[in-house]
Specification:
β3 and β4 (73-74) form a beta hairpin. This protein has 158 residues and is α+β, with helices and mostly antiparallel strands. The chain has helices at residues 50-57, 79-85, 101-111, 116-129; strands at 10-21, 24-35, 65-70, 73-74.
Amino acid sequence: MVRGPVVAELAIETSGLVKTFGSKRAVDGVDLAVPAGGVYGFLGPNGAGKTTTIRMLATLLRPDGGWARVLGHDVVREADAVRARVGLTGQYASLDEDLTGVENLVLLGRLLGFSRGRARSRAGDLLAAFGLADAAGRQVKTYSGVCGDGSTSRRASW
């Protein structure tokens, strides 16, 4: 029996992906074809557009050009379907220590599908509830780990 080549379903596919911030072109025509079922690294020097590309793939930023699909779903037209199928975490297991408290919470809110405004509003509510409103603009790595009331942990829900 003769078999044709095995074609793996693509987990990520992009063509000509572009993102600009003002006059700065952060991502310039990225083409990817990443088969499902593997582990891939996304490497490059600082400023190469890695984080911006990942944020577009996770539907946190809208591409300015080209297109992208994640698990067969268009990241613009089917953003909810993409979010329902992927998870994203920063370089560390939970919070990204280089981001501020509010930046981390807004990121999580956006991943859950909140609008930017709603995510910022809820982040403010959560920071206040945890006694961290005064620390909202500080990097998480500067936090002591103790809540405003002296306890070491609390739970909150989005």
